[in-house]
Amino acid sequence: MKTKHKLLAATATLGLALTVLLPPPAPLWAHDGVDHGAIAQPNAGVAMTDAVMLPKESQFLFGVRTALAGYSATYNRLTLYGTVSAANGGEGRVVVPQTGRIVSLAARVGQAVRAGQVLAVVDQTLDATQQIGLATERANTQAELRAAQQDYARLQTIADIAARKDVVAAELRLRQARQNAAILNGQARTRRVSITSPISGSVDVFTLAVGQQVSQGDELFRVLNPGKLRVEAQVFAQDLEKLPANAQFMIEGLQGQQGNAPARLVVFSNAVNPVNQARQLILELDNAGSNLFRAGQAVNVQVMGTSGSGSGKKELVVPTSALTDLNGKPVVFVHTAPETFKICYVQPGSANGQQTVLLAGDVNENDRVVSVGTYQLKSIYLNQ
Predict the structure, then answer these.
(1) What's the pTM value of the predicted model, to 2 decimals?
(2) Exposed end of the chain (fewer CB within 10 Å): N or C?
(3) What's the pLDDT tens digit per position in 343-356?
(4) Going by C-beta distance under 8 Å and a sequence separation of 6 or more, which residues neighbour residue 119?
């Protein structure tokens, strides 16, 4: 019995010593520093639903830039779609006046020509029926001319006894026969026609060759003057009230084409297209704009109220580069704190290459919206 009590006392003493000397138990770690034994903290690892956290260092690394949203009284713009075409004197189409064969070409593709310069010579060709008819008519005319000459010569030999009226009639017959013969001989010479340029400019692309047959009405050449261009646009009924009386116009290229140029209003037609109920707007480009655009090109026509007129309605605008989309909905990132960017869903309105009007959304004046780095912020948000 004493031995059993001694054993229990020794065991208790050893347990007390281990409790005092050994360190407290540490949390259990599995692999790569993942704490499988830690107690979950509230909101730990839960992604923010309407914002992105981005440290200052990452902002600098991604080159994030912001700009202020603000109201503009002069931004009031209307975007129309237009087509560039040649203005008056900007395009000349040369058609062949008669069926024939090209016997001479004096023009080259891209050649600068002046108005009235000869571009080609066409020799008229006749079919078999026309040739037979022309030969028959020529023979009859020559026979009539010889008969008139002989009759007139005979009357001249007996002029002292011939009736005066017979001599006058023979003279008139001879004169008419000579005129008819001259007309037929002139027709043979006028079968060769010189084709001239109607305007000054450069010869557009053509595929003609000497000896080629052409038909009456065929287009032989097109001469273009790139310094004379205009833009035609359609203004629909819902946009008429957005077109101020003192509007200014800017022409911009589509699909990433660089450059823009001002345009001058030529006419705003009062006639309405019965098909689409639109009115036609005709603008003319200046020489600088003519160097940027070409006939047939599709363009944007930006319609703006005159700056400082005070007639434009104030609209909230942000940089166009600030807009992106999340799940198909347009958004902007607003910088609300040094390392916080809030997601704001918006409804964009009219836009150009620099700014976009916001029709609705939780964006206010002087809010800092991200203008550079929206792609990186959206990627971080989607991977939170």
Answers:
(1) 0.49
(2) N
(3) 999 998 877 667 88
(4) 94, 105, 106, 107, 113, 195, 196, 197, 203, 220, 221
